[in-house]
Specification:
This protein is mostly helical. It contains 7 helices and 3 strands; from the N terminus they run ααααβαβαβα. The chain folds into 2 domains: 48 residues, no CATH class; 105 residues, 3-Layer(aba) Sandwich (Aspartate Aminotransferase, domain 2). The structure holds pyridoxal-5'-phosphate.
C-alpha cells in the first residue's frame, strides 16, 4: 500500500519532492494533472480563442456528472464557482430566508465561512456559533444548537482549518453518514439543500 502512495506522491504532487507541504487550502500547490489541464487551457486560449466553446461546454457537463457521482448527488445539485467563499456567499444571499431563521456553524470556522451568515442579521437570521471542546467539533454539539428555526448548518465532515480535525474519512458514504444526519431529512431540521414545499417558486 505504501508503494501506491509513494508513487502517487511522486507522480501527482511535484511539490512533495522538495517540501512536506501541509497547506492544501485555497492557495494549495497544484497536483500534476491539474497543472497539465491549466497548461493545455492556456495554449488553447492562445491558439483558438473561444472557437472550441462547444467542446468546453460538453466537458463541463461531463465533469458535473462525475462530481455528482462522486458525491452521490444529483447533477443539478452541482454548481461551479470560483472559490469556497463565492459558493457560500451565493447560498447565503440566494436562500429564501425568513425572519427568525437561524444558522448553526462551528465557532472556529474559517472567517469567510462565518461572515456570509453574519451578514444576514438585517434579514432577521441569527448565527449560532458552536465552540469546540477538547480541540474538536462534536456533531452532537451542533445538533444541540439546532432547532426548528435552523435552516442551514455547516457539517463537520472535512478538515477544520483551525486545528486540522478530520472527524471522519471523506468517502462516498457521507450522505448517509453521521454527519449526513445533521441534514434535515433525518433530524426534522433543514440544511440549505433541503427546501420546504412552501419555498417553491
Ligand atoms: C476551511 C476553509 N474554508 C474556506 C476557505 C476559503 O477558500 P476560498 O479561497 O476558496 O474562498 C479556506 C481558505 O484557505 C479554508 O481553509
Amino acid at each position: 500500500m505504501a508503494d501506491v502512495w509513494d508513487e502517487l506522491r511522486v507522480t501527482e504532487f511535484p511539490v512533495a519532492r522538495r517540501w512536506a507541504y501541509l497547506d492544501h487550502a485555497a492557495v494549495a500547490p497544484l497536483p500534476r494533472r491539474s497543472g497539465a489541464v491549466l497548461r493545455a487551457w492556456t495554449l488553447e486560449q492562445e491558439e483558438n480563442g473561444v472557437v472550441n466553446w462547444p467542446v468546453w461546454a460538453d466537458k463541463l457537463e461531463a465533469i458535473r456528472d462525475r462530481i455528482a457521482s462522486l458525491l452521490s448527488a444529483d447533477r443539478d445539485e452541482i454548481a461551479f464557482v470560483n472559490s469556497t467563499t463565492q459558493g457560500i456567499g451565493l447560498i447565503a444571499e440566494g436562500f429564501p430566508w425568513r425572519d427568525g431563521d437561524s444558522v448553526v456553524i462551528p465557532a472556529e470556522e474559517y472567517p469567510s465561512n462565518i461572515y456570509a451568515w453574519m451578514n444576514l442579521a438585517s434579514r432577521g437570521v441569527s448565527v449560532r456559533l458552536v465552540p469546540s471542546r477538547a480541540g474538536r467539533i462534536w456533531p452532537e454539539d451542533l445538533i444541540e444548537a439546532m432547532d426548528q428555526t435552523t435552516r442551514a448548518g455547516d457539517q463537520p465532515c472535512r478538515v477544520r482549518f483551525w486545528f486540522s480535525q478530520r472527524p471522519r474519512p471523506a468517502g462516498r458514504d457521507l450522505p448517509g453518514s453521521r454527519s449526513g444526519s445533521l441534514r434535515g431529512r433525518d433530524s426534522g431540521l433543514r440544511s440549505a439543500r433541503d427546501r420546504r414545499p412552501e419555498d417553491a417558486d
